[in-house]
Amino acid sequence: MDFSLIVSNFLNPPVLFFFLGMLAVWVKSDLDIPAPIPKLFSLYLLLSIGFKGGVELARSGISQAVVITLLAAIAMSILVPIYTFFILRSRLDPYNSAAIAATYGSISAVTFITAGSFLDQLQIAYDGYMVAALALMESPAIIIGLILVNVFTDRSGESESLQWSEVLREAFFNGSVFLLIGSVAIGFLTGEHGWQTLKPFTQDMFYGVLTFFLLDMGLVAAKRIKELQKSGAFLVSFGVLIPMLNATIGIFLAKAIALSSGDALLFAVLCASASYIAVPAAMRLAVPEANPSFYISAALAVTFPFNILIGIPLYEYGITLLW
Length: 323
Prior knowledge:
It is built from 15 helices and no strands. The chain is mainly α and 323 residues long. It starts with a helix and ends with a helix.
């Protein structure tokens, strides 16, 4: 593997600020970002990436290749929770297994954005419609996780129908999912005119906000690492090995449907990443028996740093060999 890819990715300013946030916790600095600000940054990033993706989708049109890619993305968001559930069942109960499986079947928008920044650094082109795949991969994993819980446990009672309706609402109308899908739709409807109107907001400010957001993510991730001690080495290993497996499947699938190398990396990253916003919110509601420190900490403190530092360059290396 060309280690210059890892060095290039590590020297990307937003990535460096992520590790600066982790370092601040480790050295017991009092660096802190007030709670409402990271939420605002998260909403901004979802709006910007969704709007840009919608504009790009309007430019390219909804072709057969776009439809095939979106179907492949949905298929992965269904399959990943299923096989990871059975891997997790070797060590964990059905509740925790289903919650973690749903988390890894879903996606991390920030990892996706970081991969796009990495491609920009390497001057590798990619299509904006991949954001539509991002938007479609969140909800199916939540639904599959809920199905797994109900199939492999003895849940019963009148409250179940209410629980289903609440979780389905969370799956499709969770704030992050709703904003992302809505931004894609608005970008698609307004097209080039809308892009020129919002460009100073959605593009010129983008990397500055991403940098600040990753600084906060570094602070949060470092604090979460301690919680993984409750699960031993199993979840740490899982948080590294499963993304690599998912990315490998994603890369071969991307090759089979003839994606470009840039789109293939984004597709692989979508397959390899794990949700730490939308899915945890739904799982807390639907599966209160599961331990949030397992599924949130594994995704945020292990998989997220692994992907942005090593995973993205590693997947790009594999794609370079195949393409």
